[in-house]
Structures are given as structure tokens and as C-alpha cells.
Amino acid sequence: MFRIGLTGGIGSGKSLVADLLMRRGVPVVDADAVAHALTAPGGAAMPAIRQAFGDTVIRPDGALDRDVMRSLIFSDQSLRVRLEALLHPMIYNEMKRQAALAQGPYAVFAVPLLVESGRWRDRVQRICVVDCEPATQVARVQVRSGLTPEVIERIMSAQATRDDRLAAADDVVFNGADTSLDELAASVDALHDKWLALAAQR
Q1: How far apart are CA 62 and CA 56, in angstroms?
Q2: CA distances from 51 to 91, 161, 163 (A)
Q3: Which end is more exposed in the chain, N or C (fewer Cβ atoms within 10 Å of the end residue's Cβ)?
């Protein structure tokens, strides 16, 4: 099956693009959704996270306390590396399992840290980046999550730069502050047609 890697910085609208593709019948395997399932109450990753980080990162219901973990990993790079080393193989294995069940000419792998990980270039045939202005990222995340601009800037600084993402892209969907939903949907339609044609050539 033809494989597309979909990525973008926080607040870029990657999830919205993924939703638009799913409405067109495209199988989308979402790394964020897998990570949430792994770290939910009873999630497969929780015993290892408790062992590695202790009870302070566990909510009373047994799920990962994302706010506490976010504070930890942004204050200590080594803790972020430890969490990623624990979670990323589990996320990839589950994504691979889901992809094996997918049907259609092509599948999309939505991965926030696709460029940063360095592991996805060989796993997909094309990389699509959802792009917007950095100020728009901050504004969107503030509205969505209530995080302060300082916290959002820290998260963004831990991600690939806009230039690095665009340099890695085979395709770009621009979703700036002035991009309407209709314009975004038209961009997604154009890419969908392009990827169907490429998949048919394989």
C-alpha cells in the first residue's frame, strides 16, 4: 500500500487535515490517538511509565497526567528522551498493526514528530506537511488548550523548525490564519487526487 506521512507543528491543523482525508475514505493511522490509548487508564504503556517515572505522573484514574509529564520533560531533556524511548516503539508497533488492517489505494500516517524522529523517512513514500504562521500556531493552541504563550513556545522549540519541516516535505498544505475551511478542503481534494494517481502507478 502507498504510504503518506502527515505532519505539522502544534496548532498547524494536522488533525483537521487528517479528518478531511478520513471523510474521503482514506485510512488514517494517528500516532496521537495511539499514544492516548496507550496512556489511558489501563493502557499498555502505563506500567512501564509508572516504573520509569513514579506515581507522580499518574492521575487517580490510572491515566498519564499529561500536564505533570509535560512539565517534567520540558525541564529535563533526559526525561523526554527516556519517555520517547519507552513510548515510540510501542506507538510504532500499534500503528503498524492498524496499517496492516487498512484497505484502500493509500494510507496516511499522522505523526506529529515525523521529521524530528528521523525514523519515518524510510517508512513512507511521501511526507506531507501542514504549514501555517508560527503566530497562528500560538493563537490556536491558546484557544484550544488554555496554555500560556510561554509554554506553547517551549513546546514549539522542542519541535522541528518550520524551515526544517518544509525542507523535508514532498507536499505542503497551507492552513494559515486566513485559510478558510473550504480552501483547506480544496487543497486536501487536490492532494487526494494526486496521491490516488501516484498509488495507481505503483
Answers
A1: 11
A2: 18, 33, 38
A3: C
CA angle at residue 198 from 118 to 168, to 5 degrees? 25
| 146/158 Cα distance (integer angstroms) | 19
Tell me how far apart the alpha carbons of residues 188 and 179 are, in angstroms, rounded to a whole number. 13
Segment holding 5, helix H or strand E: strand 2-8
Please report which helix (H) or strand (E) contains residue 173, including its range.
strand 171-174
Query: Among candidates 198, 190, 201, 194, which has minimal Cα distance to 20?
Result: 190
- In tens, the pLDDT along 124-174 reads 999 999 999 999 999 999 998 888 888 888 888 888 999 999 999 999 999
Note the pTM of the prediction, 2 decimals.
0.90
Query: Which residue do the cell numbers 506507538 mark?
Result: 91
The Cα 130–Cα 115 span in angstroms is 12
Helix (H), strand (E) counts: the chain: 10, 5
